[in-house]
Amino acid sequence: MTERTESTDSAPTLALEPTKAEDKAGATDLSDKSPPPTSSAPPALSPPPDGGLEAWLVILGTALVLFTMFGLMTSFGQLMLYYMEHQLRDRSKADIAWISSVQGGVMFMGSTLSGRVFDVYGTKWLVRIGTTCSFAALIAIAFCKEYYQFMLAHLFFGIAGAFVYSPSTAIAGHWFTTRRSTAMGVILAGTGLAGVLYPIVLARLFARFSFRDSMLIVAGINAVLMAPSWVWMKARLPRKTPPPWADLLKPWREPPYACLGAGAALVMLNWFTPYFQAPLYTSASALAPKYTTYAVTLVQTGATVGRLGGGVLADHFGAWRMFFTFGTATAVSLFAFWVVFPTPTPVAVIGLVSYGLTSGAYVTLVAGACATVSPLPELGMRMGMVWSIGGALSIVGPAISGQLIERAGGRFTYAAVWSGCTILAGVWIANAPKILLVARRVLGRKEQQQPLA
């Protein structure tokens, strides 16, 4: 199928309470001005189809790619358990944990470059290189025996993920307008589902086959799932002349984007911590072993629902409103359920699911909010910068939380307070322009209502 082109009317006028008609036109919630048009954008493009077979195949192909990428990343706990008992039994838990941190950090930090390439050239070579490299990385992992080999192989997998992550979170904007967040939710729901299924698959494979054969089977499964993306996953905008590198600084001069980028990155500082430490959260309170075994599964189940549901709600009530609501709820869930010690079983289960539900919506909603303050031809680059900064911080946050947990004797109390405060601060920073706009209008109305002396 031939690729169609799309309108570059980026982000039009912005109102405090956008109407349905404004949403269809791509209105945002944060600015009275449209982002300046880029000189490299074509003068006239057809509007996104906002549905149809071709558009939904793009979404499905993208979801399958992220499903396979995050399948390995979110099941690292299962791999870590195997490494500690076999190939890397002479290494500390902290040493092995660095493998996962580096893998995830590289994937996010490379998003600025891949997002820029996506804006200029589309998805074709990014997808083909990224999926091929991820397949090769899994083959390499299957034959690893030494620590440095595992580090290099997982680093290679993270680089492969960097090729596709930013384009995957930006591509929905090429095909959808009024249902953009819903489409994004479908894409990212696959990452949560992968976090539920892949640990179970790996555990079953390790019980029946050798490590080498198990990883080769996973590589084969991933290859089959990623193959459709070579045909289905494509951008709509035509190629353009690469903008100068100095253009990377321009978005940071726009208060809505600058606040969103800084706030979203601060949220990511500790966003992964409960995912990594969920088993410790349950075991510290001496819960039954089955709850420790399935702690990550409970979080990922909630995350799957949150990513899909957050997108649907954002299309009805606005991406910024839902970003603020779910972000605040994420911090509240940590304060309410993760600070308590010892944690009763019902409270622990609710805490795991509620954090997954509220934090899962974050990825969908920050992408939707970014799309409202970004010209479409720059969406990949702008979204990539958010992920890159957040990815760098996400390497540091869990390490700090781990030290807090260790100093607290295995309890999550201090780490929960630390994580909740950084997430809450990030959400308020990201929404600062919106909050100030509301405050000005409320104060303006009060001044108008005051009688003259």
Automatic annotation (TrEMBL):
Residues 34-46 have a biased composition (Pro residues). GO terms for cellular component: membrane. The keyword Transmembrane applies. The keyword Membrane applies. It comes from the Eukaryota. Gene3D superfamilies: MFS general substrate transporter like domains. The chain crosses the membrane at residues 55-84, 96-113, 125-143, 155-176, 182-203, 215-235, 323-341, 347-373, 385-405, 417-439. Keywords: Membrane, Transmembrane, Transmembrane helix. It is found in: Membrane. Pfam families: MFS_1. Residues 1-46 are annotated as: Disordered. Residues 59-443 form the Major facilitator superfamily (MFS) profile domain. Residues 19-32 have a biased composition (Basic and acidic residues). One of its GO terms (molecular function) is transmembrane transporter activity. InterPro entries: MFS, MFS_dom, MFS_trans_sf, Proton-linked_MCT. It is a multi-pass membrane protein. Belongs to the major facilitator superfamily. Monocarboxylate porter (TC 2.A.1.13) family. This is Major facilitator superfamily (MFS) profile domain-containing protein. It comes from Vanrija humicola.
